[in-house]
Amino acid sequence: MSTRTEVVVIGAGYSGVLAANRLTQRDDVDVTLVNPRAEFVERIRLHQLVAGTHDAVVDLADVLAPRVRLVVDAVERIDVPGRALDLASGGRIGYDRLVYAVGSRAATPEVPGAAEHAHPIATVEDARRLRSLLHGATPGAPVVVVGAGPTGVETAAELGEQGHAVTLVCGKTVGPYLHPRVRDVVTDRLDGFGVTVLQGPGATVREVTPGGVHLADGRDLTSALTIWTAGFGVPDLARRSGLTTDDVGRLITDETLTSVDDDRIVAAGDSAAPSGTPFRMSCQAALPLGAIAADTVLARLAGRAPRTANVVFAGQCLSLGRTAGLFQLASLDDRSTRRFLGGGRAGAWLKEFVCASTVKELRHEARRPGQSKLHRLVTKDVRSRYLSPRAEAGLVS
């Protein structure tokens, strides 16, 4: 009888790569990572890929531990009773333990014409397509960016800085997460790049056409290229496989990230919904959640009780072109405050440091599994000392 344990990780985003590397701590664990491409995508740099200021990808071999076996394929279905994955290629991979880290993607827009005539920016393929379209556009052609979360703001700033005629359609407000004081800084910087910022009750999209965007208040915007950044969803793999999910499709887990259907399955990152209440979609949450997911698997293999998922948020980091950026500081329960760092070149340096540090963290965990600084961060039981929405809901002890 084999004494080895087969652990399979689905998805090579921030959570999946971190979890796969961390699982190699045990010599009796074989780790397989399944991903549709052999590249690690720096999701937080996709706006740079569109603008041509960064490739936003790293060879997975550069960030994976040597003991992690990479299978370049897509998972079509999880056979939960049979503990196996059915692959798009027709193959099948068995597992003893499974880490579900499929990440997130652009939500299908419900606005008429948006799916046909607007372009998402949630995947590397999306960003490369947009880069090609932008390169082929007539100089000075109007570009409309819909959605004013981090992706929308960063994309508008990046393109505005390069001289493109950009209009940012925000809906109610630019940067919904940001404190009003910080929001003003962002708006001023966008204005300095010549970006037209439309916000308020009427600044929602009613329809997208091949050559324009129609707003709820009756305004018509001419657009040679419409970029859609409003809303994220998750792949429906868990739902298709008969696992319990929330309305968006995230896998429902307990507070140790263990599936409520099967304790051999744990989730991490954007596709996890601990107690039905997910953390904010971000690499800031994805990395520690990947660490916790791996630690949950390892704890169970060692016969120990796994720990709960406590993630400490610091805020939100935004690039505002290549020459500016800022870090919105937050309370430990992820509420924005009036404090921020940067705003100019110091903020741009800080944002670049954060982006580079995520890849450095993955490489560090590949070389020294279990030694990541994230381990010290997530084991601090901060939430027991601060009221948060999850604590108030009784989801964190």
UniProtKB/TrEMBL annotation:
Q: Which Pfam families match?
A: Pyr_redox_2
Which residues lie in coiled coils? Answer: none
The record's keywords, sorted A to Z, are:
FAD, Flavoprotein, Oxidoreductase
Q: Which SUPFAM superfamilies match?
A: FAD/NAD(P)-binding domain (SSF51905)
Q: Which residues form the FAD/NAD(P)-binding domain?
A: 6-277
Q: Which family does it belong to?
A: Belongs to the NADH dehydrogenase family.
Give the matching PANTHER family.
64 KDA MITOCHONDRIAL NADH DEHYDROGENASE (EUROFUNG), APOPTOSIS-INDUCING FACTOR 1
* Keyword Acyltransferase annotated: no
Q: What is this protein called?
A: FAD-dependent oxidoreductase
Keyword match Magnesium: no
Superkingdom of source: Bacteria
**What are the names of the required cofactors?**
FAD
